[in-house]
Amino acid sequence: MSLIRKHKTVVKDKRDILKGLAAGTIGGLVASWVMDEFQDVWSKASEVIQRPQGNGSNESSSPTQGVSPKDGEVQEPATIKAAEAISAHILGHQLEADEKKIAGNVVHYAVGSTSGAIYGAAARSLAFRKDRPSIHSQRIFMHSHHTLCLD
């Protein structure tokens, strides 16, 4: 193989990796948004299902929703816990109540887009078996899930 042909292959491979990186990033952002929307719909449906029947009350029959069974404290999502840890330990700033939701969303979308980018770049650069791509995405999900679990 000539040096020129080898150089063209490397350049093509870099472009393929960048295409995979871009597609994966966009896919990760879309997947994060879909996950948010699904969780909103699921939460609302759960509230309707758990509502007491026949007494006309609009309150949920589950007073422990979002509450830890151990100590009665309200549990924050893992993304907010991660945002608080990043803010406190890296930036030296304690998040205010109004900053937590925004920071949690930033972490959520950052994890989604990063996971997608890694998968997209890897899919373009590594010799993934075409009949089993889901194994690789499951590995990425499990790694990011275990990394963010702060409990």
Report on this model:
- With 151 residues, this protein is an all-alpha fold.
- The protein has a domain at 6-47 and 93-151.
- Helices cover 71% and strands 0% of the residues.
- It contains four helices and no strands.
- It has helices spanning 3-50, 78-91, 97-125, 133-148.
- Helix 1 (3-50) packs across helix 3 (97-125).
- The longest helix has 48 residues, at 3-50.
- The radius of gyration is 22 Å and the shape is flat.
Quick overview of this protein structure:
By secondary structure, the protein is an all-alpha fold. Helix content is 71%, strand content 0%.
Give the arrangement of secondary structure elements.
Blueprint: H1 3-50, H2 78-91, H3 97-125, H4 133-148
Helix pairs in contact: 1-3, 2-3, 3-4
Distance separating the two termini:
54 Å
- Summarize the main sheet: none
Structural class: mainly alpha
Low-confidence stretches: 59-65
Radius of gyration (Å):
22 Å
Range of strand content: under 5%
Order of helices and strands: HHHH
Share of helical residues: over 70%
Work out the number of β strands.
Answer: 0
Individual helix count: 4
Mean pLDDT figure: 77
Estimate the global geometry from the Cα principal axes: flat
What keywords describe this structure?
about 70% helix; flat; about 150 residues; mainly alpha; single chain
